[in-house]
Each structure stands twice: as C-alpha cells, then as structure tokens.
Amino acid sequence: MAGYRTKRSMKNEALWNFGQSYAAKLLVLVGVVNIIIGGMVLVFFPYDNELYIFVELVWVIFSLIFVYCLTEWKLKRLDEK
C-alpha cells in the first residue's frame, strides 16, 4: 500500500487521483531499484561494515526525495493546464 498526501495533491479530486497512482508507480519502481542497488552494494561492502548501512540509507533517502520531487513536478504541470 502506498499513499501520497501533500497540499498540492489535495487541491482537487483530479490531482489527488493522479498523485496517488503516479507516486505508487514510482514507489514500486524505486523499490525494485533499491533491491538491485542493495544487492550490488552487498557485493562491495560486507554487511558487518557500517559503510554498507550508510550507503543504503543515503540511497533510500535520495530515492524518496526523487519520488516526491518528480510527483510534485507532474502535479504542478497538471494543475497549470
């Protein structure tokens, strides 16, 4: 389950529906990419290494910021039409 709730996405029903479906698709894609990246990072950094956790955490934060920015950009373009 996923949900996307921001001030812009709650502006009207059309933006809400678009934001929910678009963000959900991006989150699934990012989840798959995170699994792949996590596997590749495990090859280079042993799990007991604290650098592994740092790299994974930075990647997850970056990917969530990417989803937020891209969804807000699309909502803004849709709202301007």
Describe the structure.
By secondary structure, the chain is mainly α. Helix 1 packs antiparallel against helix 2 (50-80). Helix content is 78%, strand content 0%. The protein is built from two helices and no strands. The protein has one domain (13-75).
Layout of strands and helices, then pairs:
Layout: H1 13-44, H2 50-80
Helix pairs in contact: 1-2
Distance between the termini: 29 Å
Fraction of residues in H or I helices: over 70%
Q: Helix and strand string, N-terminal first?
A: HH
Which overall shape is indicated by the principal axes computed on the Cα atoms? elongated
Structural class comes to mainly alpha
Mean pLDDT: 86
Low-confidence stretches: none
The DSSP helix count reads: 2
Write down the Rg: 16 Å
Secondary structure: number of strands: 0
Tell me what portion of residues adopts beta-strand conformation: under 5%
Largest β sheet strand count, sense and barrel closure: none
Number of separate structural domains = 1
Write out key terms for the chains shown.
81 residues, 0% strand, 2 helices, mainly alpha
Brief summary:
The chain is mainly alpha-helical and 81 residues long. It is 78% helix and 0% strand. Helix 1 packs antiparallel against helix 2.
